[in-house]
Amino acid sequence: MKEEETQNVGPKHKKGGMRTMPFIMANEACEKLAVVGSSANLLSYLTAQLHMPLTKAATTLTNFGGTSSLTPLLGAFIADAFAGRFWTITVASIIYQFGMVCLTLSATLPGLRPPPCPPTSHDCRPAAATEGQLAMLYGSLLLTALGSGGIRPCVAAFGAEQFEETGQKQSTKMWNFFNWYYFCMGASILVAVTLIVYIQDNVGWGWGFGVPTALMALSVLCFVVGFPLYRHMNPAGSPLTRLAQVIVAAVRKRDVVVPEDPGLLYENDLLDAGISATGRLLHTNQFTFLDHAAVVTPSDTTDSSGAPPSKPSLWRLSTVHRIEELKSLIRMVPIWAAGIPLILAAAQQYTFSLQQARSMDRRLSSSFSIPASSMGVFTIVSMLLTVSLYDRLLIPVARRFTGLDRGISFLHRMGIGFAISVVATFVAGFVEVKRRHRALMGDGVESVFWLVPQYILHGVAEGFMSIGHLEFFYDQAPESMRSTATALFWTAISAGNYCSTLLVIVLHRFTNWLPDDDLNKGRLERLYWLITGIQVLNLGYYTLCARSYTFKPLELRGEEGDEKVKGGEVEMLVSVWPLKFAGEELNESSSI
């Protein structure tokens, strides 16, 4: 059951609301500054300070990044099943803090890193890091990866649940929160890749890691101080156990006839109260095999009357609500998979687009050149501008035409992002043709500003798609599994990066497109156009998925105990253009 403070019924909200945002946003800003500030320039630290070979350093960062992207599944499971989001975030932040302290100590104490070569020596070969020094490094990275696993899947869900879903004004603020959350995250990343990286390169690694460590401590303090104001949702038990119970019950009753009237299937509001605080999920006509789990048989009854049991064995009999939880997750998988190619495309900004920038004219004046690694600033700035304009301009205008409190739905928002990403990689291919042609002709080098359009387009695409993806996971996930569903957002990012790595390895081995030493000897534009083709196919795949997607039908509990059925935002997505909307509320499950 929910705690008393979560039952914010009526116009006066004792807990949650806008007043919690300064604490949550301060936590997010400081935490992201610490995370990005400690990792953005880590490759330089491993090679320059620990004297690690480049390939080993790259492998270390890949393993660290992969682990950090997978641990959110564990953190989300703990939050949904046992600890709740507040305590998961708090404990995970403290674990991350310990990791940052260890990393700072390794960069500060001389005994925790190999000695540098004397300034007067010309033939000195730097000593490699000892096993103890590497153990300190790996231990600190492992702690930060574990800490990230508890923070990433819970912060967005915890912030959104501070707003009621039953009141229109509160619901609108909840969807605005995702824009604010992503804007705050982007702004923090912008500061981290400029200011924090500058401190590391020009002041010292002790200060470069020490500042993020102090910011992480500040984020924990800001978050904990707001404890009395937060709405707290109690954990509802292991979601994986509930899903397994539905599957086992359906298999056990696979030979039982399912009644044509879904009203005869087993429901128990008292049993589901802990996992359906906002409302209960209604029956849908998809994956009907699972409906076998809700058929009441004589072996399920506890007396001769044949009445449905009040406390059944959940491994033999499941409620409709629990079955629909599993159906909701199954329906989300195709939309989740559609986000992977966009991450694959965006990943090239930090690899081959970076190499393009290094080979181009980056001079702003005779004494200053733009660092190649700073070109990503254009992506971040365009993403921030997109989020700001979307929140302040597009939503109010679109709301007048669509009647939706968030302007356009997350499915349309994601579709726009997919389309813009296609254009971004298509443009990148033509820019590479122009760059390579001029380099081979011996006419000098192109200006690095030819790369700006593709960076900007990727930022705009992220502003639409990534936030729409996050909204989708939060809205369509079962209420008791929102941390787990939000973790899928991070696993999509992980999968996209791994797919990029696999694609590059295959092309490097079997083609001459991607040479090791000189881009002018390869055909990088073909990689961009291959990714463009993949994204075009993915856009078609996504359109089919969106058209056939069934929103979860939820019977909401109103402000005065009344109930209404809400199936989500029902929309027709014939193609990305034009956008066409139907109604918002319905009495049965809807199919797009």
Automatic annotation (TrEMBL):
Keywords: Membrane, Transmembrane, Transmembrane helix. It is a multi-pass membrane protein. GO terms for molecular function: transmembrane transporter activity. It holds the Pfam family PTR2. It is found in: Membrane. GO terms for cellular component: intracellular vesicle; plasma membrane. Its main location: membrane. The chain crosses the membrane at residues 86-109, 135-159, 180-199, 205-230, 329-348, 368-390, 410-431, 451-474, 486-507, 527-544. GO terms for biological process: gibberellic acid homeostasis; transmembrane transport. Belongs to the major facilitator superfamily. Proton-dependent oligopeptide transporter (POT/PTR) (TC 2.A.17) family. This is Major facilitator superfamily (MFS) profile domain-containing protein. It comes from Amborella trichopoda. The lineage of its organism: Eukaryota, Viridiplantae, Streptophyta, Embryophyta, Tracheophyta.
